[in-house]
Amino acid sequence: MAGLYLHVPYCRQACHYCDFHFSTQLGTQAAMVNAMERELAHRWPEPLPMNTWYWGGGTPSILPVPLVRHLADHLRRHAPLVGSGEFTLEANPEDVSPQNLRLWKEVGVNRLSIGIQSFVDQRLAWMNRAHTGQQARDAVKRAQDAGFENITVDLIYGLPETHLGEWQDNVGQALDMGLPHMSMYALTVEEKTALHHQIKKGQSAAPKDERATEDFLWVRQILRQNGWEPYELSNAAMPGMRAQHNSAYWSGEAYMGIGPGAHSFDGTSERRWNVSHNLRYIRAWQDPQVKNNQDEAHEKEHVTAIERTNERIMTSLRRMEGLSRTDMGAYSAELDKRWLEFVQKGWMQSTDDGWVLSDEGLLWLDTIASQGFAAAEDLGNFVS
After folding, report:
1. According to the model, what pLDDT value does residue 164 have?
2. C-alpha–C-alpha distance, residues 125 and 259, integer Å
């Protein structure tokens, strides 16, 4: 079975660093939910059970109560969640109200992902976040009091003009909350974002690699000391509390995407993605029986054996368990040759089971992974 990702492409305001697909024009939310429901019914006229549901965005917590109920009911008809499967909803602190918490409980949400990013008001304002540090603390406490036990928070490190002590305080506050999971992302500057424009104009300092490196190495160490598992490049959890939906994705399992900009993968050889444009997506699903509308709604591609191998290398090296020799088969001997220098540097450990990156090696993930990528000439000899 697959996991279902549902993309809710709305935000109250645009974070300066974000390049995800979203809109701050909220007037089309009802039409968007209707389009999502039509996509669901068209793709799965017969129910297709799912292991996990993940509502991301954008900001899913921004959806009004009636639309949340309507969408959840439609999902249950066409993509029912198996048993007590993980149902994650991304929420911003300003949306974590008693009313919304009751609603999310009623529709089956059992895991909240709260986008805190920082507890420092100055940094939140610089990122153009809509909440304050106190609102973030209150949101977590309110969710816990409402009975949510599986809560994760997002934090961003490597911000310009910060120091290690500030990052240590942010992580310390999150640890003191008794959370079972955290996602921690290095600030990146993506083209066409407000942050990219500000840096080009000299209106903002650019992040420095040394700042992010110091934060990254420290947090991996301190989490282990506190009994956590840094089980993926950007994620850490208490034992038994890893994110099921994302873990399946990193393991190469099938996932299905609904909504504008959402991606799907059948687990073997086909990938598809929906158009990243709200109005075009809504228009395409007004009449899903019209082929031209279908052509406008999404694109798809065949994933070759080489591409699957290289994606497995990249996603596996991000994880604590690393890359398995079983997955690589005869190609393992070639990888041993290509990665010998990284093993000798201490960035990678090579065992009878596979390869695992050290914390320092994770800083060089792209370089190490690309050094191992298969090419066309490897197909017949190594990659099946």
Report:
1. 98
2. 29
Domain count for the chain: 2
Task: Give the amino acid at 207.
Answer: P
β-pair type (111-117, 87-91): parallel
* 175 & 38 share domain: yes
The domain that contains 92 carries what CATH number? Answer: 3.20.20.70
What residues make up the domain containing 132? 2-249
* Domain final residue pick, 249, 268, 303: 249
At 110 the pLDDT is: 98
In a domain, 117, yes or no: yes
- Joined together, the tokens standing for residue 361 give 């090696």
Same domain, 230 and 84: yes
Are 92 and 224 in the same domain? yes
Model confidence over 73-132: pLDDT tens digits?
999 999 999 998 999 999 999 999 999 999 999 999 999 999 999 999 999 999 999 999
DSSP character for 207? P
Interatomic CA distance for residues 63 and 86, integer angstroms:
20
pLDDT digits (tens, 9 = 90+) for 16-53: 999 999 999 999 999 999 999 999 999 999 999 999 99
Q: Are residues 235 and 341 in the same domain?
A: no
- CA dist., res. 188 & res. 196, Å (int): 9
pLDDT digits (tens, 9 = 90+) for 130-143: 999 999 999 999 99
- Average pLDDT for the chain: 95
333 and 226 in a common domain:
no
For tokens 């993506």, name the residue.
190
Q: Tell me: pLDDT of 293 over 90.
A: no
**Does residue 92 belong to any structural domain of this protein?**
yes
Site of tokens 């959402």? 262
* pTM > 0.85: yes
Q: Where are the beta strands (DSSP E) in the chain?
A: 2-8, 50-57, 87-91, 111-117, 151-157, 181-186, 229-232, 235-237, 255-258, 263-265, 270-274, 298-302, 323-324, 348-350, 354-357
Q: What's the token pair of residue 89?
A: 């909803």
- 344 and 223 inside one domain: no
pLDDT at position 209 over 80: yes
